[in-house]
Amino acid sequence: MRKKEAKAIKEISASALGIPLESSVISIVNDLLQDGVERGASDIHLEPAEEGLTVRLRIDGLLYTFHHISREMMPLIISRIKIMAGMDIAEKRLPQDGTIYLEDNKGDINIRVSSLPIIYGEKMVLRILNPAGLIMVLDTLGFNSHNLKKYLKFLEHAWGMVLVTGPTGSGKTTTLYSTLRHISLPEKNIITVEDPVECRLAYANQIQVNTKTGLTFARALRTVLRQDPDIIMVGEIRDTETAEIASRAALTGHLVFSTMHTSDAPRALTRLLDMGVEPYLLNSSLVGVVSQRLIRLNCRHCLEEETPSSDALAIFREICTEPQRPVFYRGRGCSHCNNTGFRGRTAIHEIMPVDETMRTLIRQSCSGQEIRSYAVSGGMSTILQDGMARAARGETTLGEVVKETYYSL
Questions:
Q1: Picking from 81-90, 100-109, 227-236, 363-372, which range would have the lowest pLDDT averaged per residue?
Q2: Could you tell me how far CA 112 lies from the centroid of its own chain?
């Protein structure tokens, strides 16, 4: 949405409209949705306050305020979104979930809607699930050449388990969807178990978990094993039962992909052991682990040299041993990047293959630090090293890398 349109929404009120009220509400909601898609937002936040409705967009991981809607229009906007999402417009005391299907010139877009009652009304968050951004070619996901070769080696296995780890919003689902597209073949039976299904894949049989009816990850996965699968994708390993079934599936001739919330690759192994997965089961089934983060990229239209903070430079010198310090850059801020200095994001990774020595460490239930030390000695580039290399090349700022990796490890 252009700036003059944003201003029109900010000033709009029922009494000032010269067109039928119903039509104006439909137009405003459509514009808000289209604006979020065009700006590349991952989420649209509609936040009720005493003076009206604030609209914020999450772009490249951060929230920015774009619009304000008058209080008299607020319930109409909320009701319109509920109708589009198939939610109960009369229920305002309990949280609800729904889905909006939006047609775009680049393809159909799913928008997952969540409502939450707060003191000034109902707060709504609309998660934009754009298939064009969820399914990509593997060499566009941010892997450096060394890491890409290691990851492609994982995909050559006929059976075994591959884990992708990282915090919420680190691009794990995009990596898995893109991987499934890369390895899909007409003669392969691919089945996914997800909560929720974020993108519909033409070449896979997708299952939506529904805890209300008892269709949990574990129960769905047990049934999947009777469906003659070749490749299984489990959206997330959340409990011991799911972890054990996934490990056994990988051990009995299936290629299994899943995600976990851990801060680095070695901790995925110790987390599974802590969950109660038997060491013999894990060391026999696990192929490798990918840990990733998303970092913002410098805007190429307003790039300029910068001097990082002393703390960030100290961390850089600790990680990188090159005698000459590179020139660092950041975006100054311009119209192309909404004056943020950043435009777009990419992933940084650490990739840890599981070899025979590491299998021994798993059998011995070694600590995450021992596993990490062995992996690094064997040539694993850490996620922090990958990010520092990006900053040294001017792709991002040193502060961005430190913020997203160093303090979260």
A1: 100-109
A2: 14
Count, in order, helices (H) and strands (E) of the chain: 15, 15
Q: How far, in Å, CA of 36 to CA of 104, rounded?
A: 12
Which two structure tokens, joined as six digits, stand for 286?
Answer: 């696990």
CA 11 to chain centroid, in Å, comes to 34
Q: Tell me what pLDDT residue 198 has.
A: 86
Q: What is the pLDDT of residues 19-35, one digit of tens each?
A: 455 568 999 999 999 99
| Residue 131 predicted with pLDDT over 90 | no
CA neighbor of 388 nearest in space, from 317, 331, 291: 317
- The CA distances from residue 242 to 33, 217, 236, 255, 406, in Å, are 36, 6, 9, 15, 31
Find out whether the peptide bond into 196 is cis, omega within 30 degrees of 0. yes
What is the structure's pLDDT at 202? 86
Q: The tokens 């689902």 sit on which residue?
A: 173
Question: Both tokens of residue 43?
Answer: 């989420």
Is residue 205 within 8 A of residue 246, CB to CB? The reply is no
**Could you say which DSSP state residue 275 is in?**
T
Label residue 121 left, alpha or beta by phi (over 0 means left) and psi (-120 to 50 means alpha): left
Which phi-psi region, left, alpha or beta, contains residue 85 (left: φ > 0; alpha: ψ -120 to 50)?
Answer: alpha
Q: What is the pTM of this model?
A: 0.86
Q: What pLDDT does residue 297 have?
A: 97
Find how far residue 123's CA is from the centre of its chain: 22
Could you give the 3-state DSSP secondary structure of residue 342?
A: strand
Query: If you ran DSSP here, which 8-state letter would residue 259 be given?
Result: E
User: Residue 379 corresponds to which tokens in the numbers above?
Assistant: 């040539």
The radius of gyration of the chain's CA atoms, rounded to the nearest angstrom, is 23
Residue with tokens 């600790």: 318
Helix axes 3-11, 21-38, angle to 10 degrees: 140
